[in-house]
Design goal:
InterPro entries: ABM_dom, Dimeric_a/b-barrel, FAD-bd, FAD/NAD-bd_sf, RIFMO-like. Keywords: FAD, Flavoprotein. The chain is of the alpha+beta class. About 30% of the residues lie in helices and about 30% in strands. An 8-stranded antiparallel beta barrel has the order 1-3-2-6-7-5-8-4. Strands 9, 10, 16, 17, 18, 19, 27 and 28 form an 8-stranded mixed sheet that branches. Strands 14-13-22-23-24-21-25 form a 7-stranded mixed sheet, covered by helices on one side. Helix 1 runs antiparallel to helix 3.
Length: about 750
């Protein structure tokens, strides 16, 4: 993609005439082959200065425009209106691919009219502060006519210096502070590299260029929990993304996932939505299983060591909360837009989508298919289910109903009936928010199977074949629930068939699949949605590094390497659990923690590693690939309350935790300072470093990294530490590397697996 920005200054009194001349040709420019964007911006500091912005799919499209009648028509129209000036110039830019000496940053920010004075007062202060930032060259403030949208268009000496600046958390206050509130609301950032003017000697256009309507870094197909999670994580990192969704309206009733796992709650805490989820949901406090009317076990899920308990929240609420969070990052899904097809090459993906106004094309660097059980992306990639797609022969029904009985609140209830050791009846009741409200799942009455003609329903969990009645629900309760149980207020119901399977690959080239597009689960354990969220959580930070050009060559391959074995294990476990009372009664707690993804580990990943001086070193701490546990009681100078470890490791970067106790060498401070500088350079600024000291350790004189005291000893205990050691925590909260003692060379080699050793 190529962007041009041409500046012109109107003669006194000709400002409106210039705008009229542009409006007369703007539609014609937009209709040219290869045009992606066209607009006229005003210089916010000079009412007579304008910037004509155009974007093109390739050099040929731009050359055809420059040599064609539309450009000539506009030039003729504005020639008598413009004021010749030495300041006039045209910039030609490209998408930021590879290395380039100059980086241009276009930050699009919305300024409500009621707060315009506040923005206009703060912006000059920001521009003055930026003058002292290394690598910063200059910037313009532009405004879209008759709009509350501004563009801060800045020029930097290099991408490395720009990312080094934004990688410092202090920049938000030190330089951007006066306008930071606007940058936290609704903004979009795009990056460009300088480019030479297209060579007019090249071969002429064939006239067959595709008219690309939109360009973006990542196109996400599907606005369910998986797609929304991926979009939030990309947007949090400043990566431009577009989300399209086939369904024109969001879902409105609880016919999908309900259970939100403990690990998902940790992720939501990181994304800033955990409080919204807790306010909208209810806690699932335990479960009970009955076989032939006899209670076989009861377990409390309120375990004190969990960071969050198991939450009950309908999927439509999950999607609402994620959509609202995404909106604060400046991204809104386009609903009623369906993917038709796509092609890909070495540089990106070209997707064709259907909208209410007709077909459009979208150019993206990467595409992620989060489009569910009937995934179009999966189909177009030619992915197949390993071993075939499995389907249970039974039909099931769902219902949202009030249940009157004497059962403990907050418990998930499973009633099963067995004859001669074989299950022939099943009822699962999951509490919902509301008085005595449950989502029930049970075998459908035989008449519904007859409606299908004995044929399999298409894959998916919510394929509606008919609408069971309240009498059907009551019949299931009469058969399996305690005597006297009554159902009322049936809000909705449906019939579905359970499908299960996992695709042979999680992607190909620049296209990936996640969530139900990659794996289908029986509903036992509520694994589907949570596993999809974990897919997106794993993939997004890697995609962000790839878009920025700082990812190692094999980093994106690790998405399948890490996530597919987990998906395979979860699908298998869910299938085994679907028609049994329990898998392992001897260790119900461990089974619950496993289902909640609290024991998830990427220990077999090629990205993770360690360097230990003795086999027993760090044996009581998390291993490579394990979830990095939280710890409290941390003391940081200037903070009047104890901190938690996840307050340090949270964010969008890797975090290096260097630990030392009283036995550490006196030269530790010098070594840690050098290590900090080296890893930040190697990771292109995408890493935070902290020195954690035991209560008896002497604090070295350090300006960097920050020093935090393990005052309560919780970090030492949780990570099994003595002497000097380090842990590298990935952006997804898993241990990437650890060493005892500190092994800088081994750490550098591990970072090369992620960042490719770029300096």
């Amino acid at each position: 993609m190529i962007r041009t920005m041409a500046r012109l200054r109107a003669r006194p009194g000709c400002e409106q005439a210039v705008q009229s001349a542009w409006r007369a040709v703007a539609g014609q420019v937009g209709g040219l082959a290869g045009n992606l964007r066209q607009e006229l911006l005003l210089d916010a500091d000079d009412a007579r200065s304008f910037v004509v912005v155009t974007e093109w799919a390739d050099e040929a499209a731009l050359r055809d425009y420059r040599n064609g009648p539309v450009a000539a028509r506009f030039a003729d129209a504005v020639r008598p209106l413009r004021e010749p000036s030495a300041a006039e110039r045209e910039l030609v830019m490209r998408d930021p691919e590879g290395e380039a000496s100059t980086l241009f940053v276009d930050v699009e920010v919305t300024v409500p009219a009621a707060r315009l004075a506040e923005f206009q007062h703060g912006y000059p202060q920001v521009r003055a502060r930026m003058a002292g930032v290394p690598g910063y060259l200059r910037e313009d403030l532009l405004r879209e006519p008759d709009s509350d949208t501004f563009h801060i268009f800045a020029e930097w000496a290099s991408a490395a210096e720009f990312f080094r600046w934004i990688g410092n958390p202090a920049h938000a206050q030190e330089e951007a502070g006066p306008i930071a509130p606007f940058l936290l609301r609704d903004f979009r950032r795009r990056l460009f590299h300088s480019a030479a003017r297209p060579d007019s000697s090249r071969a002429p256009s064939t006239g067959k260029e595709i008219n690309v309507h939109t360009t973006t870094d990542v196109l996400i197909v599907g606005a369910g929990p998986t797609g929304l999670t991926a979009a939030v994580e990309l947007a949090r990192r400043g990566i431009e993304c577009r989300v399209i969704e086939k369904q024109a309206t969001p879902p409105g009733h609880a016919d999908k996932a309900i259970g939100v796992h403990c690990r998902t709650m940790e992720i939501w805490a990181e994304q800033g939505i955990v409080r919204d989820a807790m306010d909208a949901g209810i806690w699932l406090t335990g479960n009970m299983v009955f076989v032939n009317g006899v209670q076989t076990h009861r377990m409390s899920w309120e375990l004190p060591e969990l960071p969050y308990a198991h939450l009950g929240l309908p999927q439509y609420e999950t999607e609402r909360i994620l959509t609202e969070r995404l909106a604060t990052l400046g991204v809104r899904p386009r609903r009623g837009v369906e993917l038709i097809t796509f092609t890909q090459d070495d540089d990106g993906v070209l997707a064709t989508v259907a909208t209410a106004a007709g077909e459009e094309t979208i150019r993206a660097k990467y595409l992620v298919g989060c489009d569910g059980a009937h995934s179009r992306v999966r189909e177009l990639l030619g992915l197949t289910f390993s071993g075939g797609l499995g389907r249970f022969p039974q039909l099931f029904m769902l219902g949202d109903v009030d249940v009157d009985w004497d059962m403990p609140a907050g418990h998930l209830l499973r009633f099963m009936h067995e004859t001669d050791g074989r299950m022939d009846g099943m009822l699962v009741c999951v509490p919902l928010r509301g008085e005595s409200r449950y989502r029930i799942a049970t075998l459908a009455p035989p008449r519904f199977f007859a409606q299908t003609g004995g044929q399999d329903a298409p894959p998916g969990f919510s394929e509606e074949l008919a609408e069971p009645t309240l009498a059907d629900v009551q019949a299931a309760l009469d058969h399996l629930a305690p005597p006297g149980t009554l159902a009322s207020n049936l809000r909705w119901s449906s019939v579905f068939r359970i499908s299960h399977g996992i695709v042979d690959r999680y992607g190909a080239g620049r296209v990936f699949v996640a969530g139900d597009a990659a794996h289908l689960h029986p509903p036992a354990g509520g694994q589907g949605m949570n596993t999809g969220i974990q897919d997106a959580w794993n993939l997004a930070w890697k995609l962000a590094l790839a878009v920025r050009g700082v990812a190692a060559p094999g980093l994106l391959d690790s998405y399948e390497t890490e996530r597919r074995p987990e998906g395979e294990e979860i699908v298998g476990r869910a299938v085994r659990m679907a028609f049994t009372d329990e898998l392992d009664r001897d260790d119900l707690k461990r089974q619950f923690l496993q289902e909640m993804s609290m024991l998830l580990s990427y220990s077999d990943s090629p990205l993770v590693g360690e360097s230990l001086s003795a086999p027993d070193a760090l044996r009581n701490g998390p291993g490579p690939g394990d979830r990095a546990p939280d710890a409290g009681g941390l003391d940081r100078q200037g903070v009047g309350h104890p901190l938690r470890l996840h307050e340090l490791t949270g964010g969008t970067k890797h975090t290096l935790l260097v630990y030392a106790d009283g036995s550490a060498d006196e030269g530790l401070g010098t070594a840690v300072g050098k290590l900090c500088a080296d890893v930040r350079r190697q990771a292109s600024g995408q890493i935070d470093v902290y020195l954690l000291l035991s209560p008896d350790a002497r604090a070295p004189r350090l300006l960097d990294p920050p020093v935090v005291r393990d005052a309560a000893g919780e970090f030492r205990a949780a990570y099994g530490l003595t002497g000097a050691a380090l842990y590298l925590v990935r952006p997804d909260g898993h241990v990437g590397f650890r060493s005892q003692p500190i092994d800088a060379d081994a750490l550098s080699k591990n970072l090369q697996l992620v960042f490719g050793g770029r300096r």
